[in-house]
Design brief:
Layout (H helix, E strand, L loop, with lengths): L1 H19 L26 E7 L10 H9 L4 E5 L2 H4 L10 H12 L3 E6 L19 H19 L5 E4 L6 H6 L10 H18 L4 E7 L4 H11 L4 E5 L13 H14 L5 E6 L11 H18 L3 E4 L11 H4 L12 H13 L6
Parallel strand pairs: 1-2, 1-8, 2-3, 3-4, 4-5, 5-6, 6-7, 7-8
Helix pairs in contact: 5-7, 7-8, 8-9, 9-10, 10-12
């Protein structure tokens, strides 16, 4: 009963934040004037990126020309989900890597590096993992998860050096009971075992690889980072941060961004932080226009630099009118027909202004 009450409180807090568009604060507010830290340029190796294939829906499909377009705009990093559902839709059938072979080859051809996401546990609405995984208990799930993740890393580790582990696993209760993205939530111990399995799959195959813990900035995110740090020696914290989901907050939250980065670093024992996902829809609703998306993008990118983050990834590359989730339907910097929005040009301008160098 206590667990259910706790979950309800967290879910209500999340819904409240989405409604008001304000970031979560889990302790005393950071009083530092973050704007005083504004750098003249990005530090060497700063990762300017974009989420380019997060959910295996047809309208998110990437083609060779997309990589040319991204590279021409200065984007040198993409975050791609190497979706288990696409690789092993039928349990036990041979893995199908054909699509991801193309993605990896075209990105490399255009000088774009990849953060490959593995083990995303969405297996209901907007499934990324095969739906058949929803019926498995934790032991059996870990066995098949290990097989899939090792197969992906083994195939691409010569080219891909950065791997994101799962996707917002700290929000699995909400995703299971409200958004219906997962078949069920996992216990804390099970979450630790999932992250440990994915991290080991990467590190045992490629000891030089960089792993990223994916975490959404909601109540309990610091605790989640601390718990996962006990079981997995990941290298980066990848924050997902949405201060303007419903109410269009476009500026003036730089100290909140600094606060998030400071707390994430502290919770992880001092590991670097990247903004693995942030975005702003431009569906034409009140306050959500191409102009406000453009303003939000510049501001949050600059706030990430001020906060000392080592990377910034926009969510996402393309609009998708068939996307089931409203807030993500029009978050792209390109229209469905690949016409650029104002934010696309703004992102190119930000990258040019602050500099973009390959990660060491």
């Amino acid at each position: 009963m206590r667990k259910i009450s706790c979950i309800l409180v967290i879910s209500l807090a999340l819904l409240g934040t989405l409604a008001h568009g304000k970031p979560f604060r889990l302790g005393p507010e950071n009083q530092t004037n973050c704007s005083a830290n504004s750098p003249a340029q990005a530090p060497a190796g700063f990762m300017w990126g974009i989420t380019a294939y997060h959910i295996p829906l047809p309208d998110y499909e990437l083609y060779p020309d997309d990589f040319v377009v991204m590279a021409q705009n200065g984007i040198r990093w993409i975050r791609v989900d190497y979706a288990w559902k696409r690789i092993e839709p039928v349990r036990g059938e041979p893995y199908d890597f054909s699509y991801f072979d193309m993605v990896t080859e075209e990105a490399t051809r255009n000088g774009i590096q990849i953060i490959a996401q593995i083990g995303n546990g969405y297996n209901r609405d907007r499934a990324v993992s095969p739906e058949w995984t929803g019926d498995l208990r934790i032991g059996e799930y870990l066995d098949v998860l290990d097989g899939y993740s090792r197969a992906v890393v083994e195939r691409y580790h010569g080219t891909i050096k950065h791997w994101s582990l799962e996707n917002q696993l700290n929000l699995d209760y909400y995703q299971a009971w409200i958004s219906n993205s997962r078949a069920h939530p996992w216990s804390v111990i099970s979450k630790m075992r999932i992250i440990h399995t994915l991290n080991n799959a990467v590190k045992q195959i490629d000891q030089t690889a960089i792993t990223v813990l994916s975490v959404l900035a909601v109540p309990g995110y610091q605790w989640f980072i601390k718990k996962m740090s006990l079981i997995a020696d990941f290298d980066l914290v990848g924050l997902h941060y949405y201060p303007a989901v419903v109410t269009p907050v476009t500026e003036g939250f730089e100290n909140d961004v600094c606060d998030l980065v400071t707390k994430a670093k502290s919770a992880s024992g001092g590991k670097p932080v990247i903004f693995l996902e942030t975005g702003f829809k431009s569906d034409g609703g009140e306050g959500h226009t191409p102009e406000t998306q453009q303003l939000f993008l510049r501001n949050i990118a600059e706030y990430a630099l001020q906060a000392g983050a080592v990377g910034f990834f926009w969510y996402e590359y393309l609009d998708n009118p068939n996307e089931p989730q409203d807030r993500q339907r029009y978050s792209g910097l390109l229209e469905e027909d690949r016409s650029p929005k104002l934010g696309w040009f703004e992102y190119g301008s930000v990258i040019q202004q602050y500099g973009s160098e390959p990660h060491p």
